[in-house]
Design goal:
Layout: H1 2-33, H2 36-105, E1 109-126, E2 131-135, E3 148-150, E4 156-164, E5 167-172, E6 179-184, E7 190-194, E8 205-211, E9 221-224, E10 235-244, E11 250-257, E12 266-278, E13 284-290
Helix pairs in contact: 1-2
């Protein structure tokens, strides 16, 4: 296609050059033999054609340059798509390998199912160390203390610490007194995640008690380890930094919360969840249903 445009441009330029040269010669001769006014009248259409051809050539050049830029951009996008497809293929390959190994070792799989109640946020209370919110639903719809609050995408928001007939108070994961047992999903390292003011990183979470030999990478996802308060596999956040504790015998990781706590309008309370265990054949072998019980204080877990 570029060759076609180049050929057309060359032809137009040659024609424009010949017409320009002819006009120059004709103008020189004409001015000597006939009045200038008559010559201008005669040559005006010819000049217009020459100008049009020159403008057309300029348009073709502009289009050609834009075409080359678009072609380069398209090639870059194709490269990125190919890279994404390669990552997807690798992930699919890992998933198939994991399934195959589970089958060979006859390892069970766990699937979490939830019952949830939706609610809207009607109040906030936030300081450097504390972070709570109040929702518009409570015990009248089954919400109790120590129930987990999440977003619609399964991102951890916090824990119910107080419940009335038509309201409930949620202590968010940004609160310094709330701890959640977490697991780095890629590597399997476990630690305790808590919020609170971190100098220079007041909107981040801190995952502590990680092994000193742990390999921690940015963007690694951290999920709940599973307990009587939090179902397993809820998304806590992703790693944005890591380092050694002051003692040097353990590592920590800074996490960006998955839930955008300060911009939420609606959340969901998990009133009941079940863990279904399946063997390699896919048949259900056991099922455990958990519903948090009422308590005067919310334990940290």
């Amino acid at each position: 296609m570029r060759k076609l445009f180049n050929t057309k441009v060359i032809i137009i330029l040659v024609v424009a050059a010949l017409i320009t040269a002819g006009l120059t010669i004709a103008s020189g001769v004409g001015m000597q033999t006939i009045p200038g006014t008559v010559m201008q009248v005669i040559m005006a259409p010819v000049k217009a054609v020459g100008t049009g051809l020159a403008n057309t050539a300029e348009l073709y050049y502009s289009y050609m340059f834009k075409y080359e830029a678009l072609a380069a951009e398209n090639a870059e996008l194709q490269k990125k798509i190919a890279e994404m497809e390669d990552v997807a293929r690798q992930a699919d390959s890992v998933n198939r390998e994991n399934t195959r190994l589970r089958s060979l070792l006859n390892l069970p799989s766990a699937v979490e199912t939830y019952k949830m109640v939706d609610a809207y946020i009607i109040g906030w209370n936030t300081t450097d160390w504390n972070s709570t919110l109040t929702i518009n639903r409570g015990t009248s719809v089954g919400i109790q203390q120590n129930m987990c609050a999440v977003t619609e995408n399964g991102q951890v928001v916090g824990l119910v610490t107080e419940a009335g007939p038509n309201y409930a108070v949620i202590k968010t994961i940004l609160d310094s007194t709330l701890e959640v047992s977490g697991t780095i999903s890629v590597s399997g390292y476990n630690g305790m995640v808590k919020g609170g003011y971190i100098d220079g990183h007041d909107t981040l979470l801190k995952m502590q008690y990680l092994p000193s030999s742990a390999i921690i990478r940015n963007t690694d996802q951290v999920v709940t380890s599973g307990s009587t308060l939090y179902p397993k596999g809820l998304i806590i956040g992703k790693v944005v930094d890591a380092g050694f504790e002051e003692t040097g015998v353990a590592k920590f990781a800074l996490l960006e919360p998955a839930a955008e706590i300060n911009t939420l309008e609606q959340i969901f309370i998990i009133t009941e969840y079940a863990t279904q265990i399946t063997g390699s054949t896919g048949a259900s072998e056991a099922e455990e249903t958990t519903a948090p019980t009422d308590a005067t204080t919310a334990p940290t877990n």
